[in-house]
Amino acid sequence: MQCALYDADRCRSCQWLEKPYSQQLRDKQARLEALLAQQPVGEWLPPVTSAQQAFRNKAKMVVSGSVERPVLGMVQRDGTAVDLSACPLYPASFAPVFAAIRPFIARAGLTPYNVARRRGELKFLLLTESTQGGMMLRFVLRSRAKLDQLRAALPWLQQQLPQLEVISANIQPVHMAILEGDEEIALTPAQSLAESFNQVPLWIRPQSFFQTNPQVAAALYATARDWVHALNVGSMWDLFCGVGGFGLHCATPQMQLTGIEISAEAIACAQRSAQMLGLEKVNFAALDSTAFATGRDAVPDLVLVNPPRRGIGAALCDYLSRMAPQTILYSSCNPESMAQDIARLAAYRVTRVQLFDMFPHTAHFEVLCLLTRRGAEEGGPAS
Fold this sequence. Notes:
Elements: H1 4-7, H2 21-35, E1 58-65, E2 70-75, E3 81-83, H3 95-108, E4 122-129, E5 135-141, H4 147-160, E6 164-171, E7 183-186, E8 193-197, E9 200-204, H5 214-229, E10 235-239, H6 245-250, E11 256-261, H7 264-277, E12 282-286, H8 289-294, E13 302-305, H9 313-323, E14 327-332, H10 335-344, E15 348-356, E16 366-373
Parallel strand pairs: 5-6, 10-11, 10-13, 11-12, 13-14
Antiparallel strand pairs: 1-2, 1-4, 2-3, 4-5, 6-7, 8-9, 14-16, 15-16
Active site: 333, 333 (nucleophile)
EC number: 2.1.1.189
Enzyme class: transferase
């Protein structure tokens, strides 16, 4: 991938851009294999690759410059503003949105926030696009001071960009590099963006986490579904479930599924999807995943975990080791913490592993790992 910003040393977010993509994959696979070197792996499946550009469905743009000439992108440590609107990781559909937002900022009088002076109102713009073509736009503001002006100017922006189905304002008053605050203010009647992976309806709300590489995420969910369906699973927990992508893919009308996620926004999305699919034996709840699990006296046939970068931790590993569900399906965005957790799960053997290259041109990736209780019968390989 060619990037003028990288060549000009204006942005180095893609640390591996100069490395051929085939080498990137080999290096990631080697790192994963080294981390699991102490765990005999039954089957290594080949990495799932990504498009090398235009794969992101989300842009997180710092707004700097002036109200008349805003800059959408990032601010370097020396205070220099860098325009990232032409980043090749973004799809072509983002360009007209950025083009319309610049004059809109002036129309609405949204003065970009100046970090050094601690003045201004507009801190970030967060843009998300679904594979269905709809978009969600969030304005991250320092306060409510410009909300009336924003609302008054909004019809012009909606006329220019009818694809903006969900618009909101997030209030983030803290003078720190924090992307968003707790308060979200709806600016459109709709506050859920429709998405669909593998014919499974999903919903994205302003404060719910969603994967940034939809093509690879769809492959990840489909793989988890295939692995689970190859087993004799009557009951399942989906811990750290987010909007329910894994559980909803794996669920069958006969399966008892419980999905747990701390974010109420994400759980609302998961519940809506389950209703659309007509799944009657599914329950999603906004709770702490570790507290939920460790407070139970019994476990299901399969426990799926998709934790944040810190992993599932010692307490949940100890609980799973003691309660010994037949199968654990571990999805991770941090192979280091995953390897630490697997080492704690001594009662399990690693049956199958696959790398998913969710983040090309960086050292990051996702991994899916099937763990089978030692002595338990194992299902056949996924077809």
